[in-house]
Amino acid sequence: MSKRPAVNLAELTAEAAAPMTEAVQRAPRPPMPAPVTAELAPARHVAEMKVKTENLQALAFKVPPAFRKRFRQRAADADLKLNELLFESLDAWEEKNGIKK
Questions:
Q1: pLDDT over 90 (residue 85)
Q2: How far is CA 50 from the centre of its chain?
Q3: 18-38 residue pLDDT tens
């Protein structure tokens, strides 16, 4: 069995290589939207943006599939992260039960 000839990598550089004629060219990606800043964010999100994420710990528990789907949908509808919805939920429960933070 004979070995294949070595590939000259210099021929594969952008300066030397030409695109294959049968290759489909991709359309350029649209530009990414600018990140939301505190000045542009809706008022209800400003407080949430101040939540520090460096000291968060994992919290794992099991829930029924329907609850999981509902929780994730509510977070998505409100444009919240899952943990932000959890924080707001606990705050609302404490307020409802007269528990001070």
A1: yes
A2: 18
A3: 666 676 667 777 777 776 655
Instruction: Please state the domain extents for the chain.
Output: 56-101
User: Residues 85, 78: contact at Cβ < 8 Å?
Assistant: yes
Three-state secondary structure string covering the chain: CCCCCCCCHHHHCCCCCCCCCCCCCCCCCCCCCCCCCCCCCCHHHHHHHCCCCCCCCCCCCCCCHHHHHHHHHHHHHCCCCHHHHHHHHHHHHHHHCCCCC
8 A C-beta contact, residue 90 and residue 96:
no
Residue 40 is encoded by which pair of tokens? 């542009």
Q: How far is it, in rounded angstroms, from Cα 29 to Cα 97? A: 50
